[in-house]
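Predict structure. Chain length: 415.
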Amino acid sequence: MPLAVVNCSQLVTLAGPARPRVGAEMRELSIIADGAMLVSDGTVERVGARREIEALMSGDCEVVDAGGRVVLPGFVDAHAHPVFAGTRVDEYELRALGATYQEIAASGGGIRSTVRRTRAATEDELVASCRRYSEWFLRTGTTTVEAKSGYGLSLEDELKILRAIRRLDSETQLNYVPSFLGAHDVPEEYRARREAYVALLIEEMLPRVAEEKLAEYCDVFCEEKVFTTDESWRILSEARCHGLGLRVHADQLSLSGGAQLAAELHAQTADHLEHTDAAGINALKEAGVQPVLLPGSVYALGHTRYPAAREMIEAGLAVVLATDFNPGSSPTPSMPIVLSLASTHLRMTPAEALTAATVNAAYSLGRGDSIGSLETGKRADFVIHDCADWREVAYFFGLEHARATYVAGRPVTLK
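Prediction complete.
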């Protein structure tokens, strides 16, 4: 049945060039005041002024009255770790008492703590527990999420996580884009023989992931004390040979050379970038790599060094924002919180932040032609927010502004 969304105080379409937005383009949101939208077969048929759209409505059209509220595209969260077992609330308390992320990891906590719990869980148990997180994303207005593995760190456990992601994509209304992150850390049993683990990643894990078509991307945590630039280069180069796109955890804890590596390999994205310098920014620009910035993890870890977003935008990079949702360093699925942090700590305007969380994020996942903006022919992923002005979504932070979420033109049902 055709669908008409009417009585929108602001229909924020983000219509524009069919590519990631850069520079001043990131502030151009193509807002239609008193707007409306026609949806047919799950895709946007037309957007325009309310009077224009109402004249085109057929008798069998289902009408959704936005009630004078704001309508935005669904958020596209381009960096998340949404499949894991257990929590790390004990480490949260330790950090409040002064322990650093690195100290906790060195004592057997951090990623390895979640690995132990995730290895002990079955695929069915992971799917059942992570349905809850899918609802959290949808409830805050996110309709697509990039989903990394990385809490298995063995062949069977990494495959288990990726299969769980595939099931969540088919069994929930949230859209998942799977990434293989077997190079998230070196597991306990390989600490004294890390070269053997790199060989396992290259010779066994990547071929199986590709054979079963379980991932679209491969990611590596490139950091001197995790995977060196040489190790990361070998893993990512092999991933490319298997047809996977490349993403890099880069320069999060130090100036590790991750941004330079992402540029050298022409990766799709370089993520984190808290310590990236001017040379790294220039390298990303020359190579056309999109930066994915994760202020939620900086905030949650109690750090003060945020990525140089302003410099990246002024350099002409197509900046992306994401949550980094995970049980340790960024336990939030809320893109509105990230938008708030972007304006208060990254010096991004609200318009730049919104562009980074929607259309630019969609392009970073290879989906810019189908999601991220409300334009004719794109999937009708949209959210009615209980605001009169779209900027309130970030301005009144800590609230769930999403009044109703639609994926492919269908309302999301939440428990």
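Summary: Residues 16 and 30 are 8 Å apart (CA to CA).
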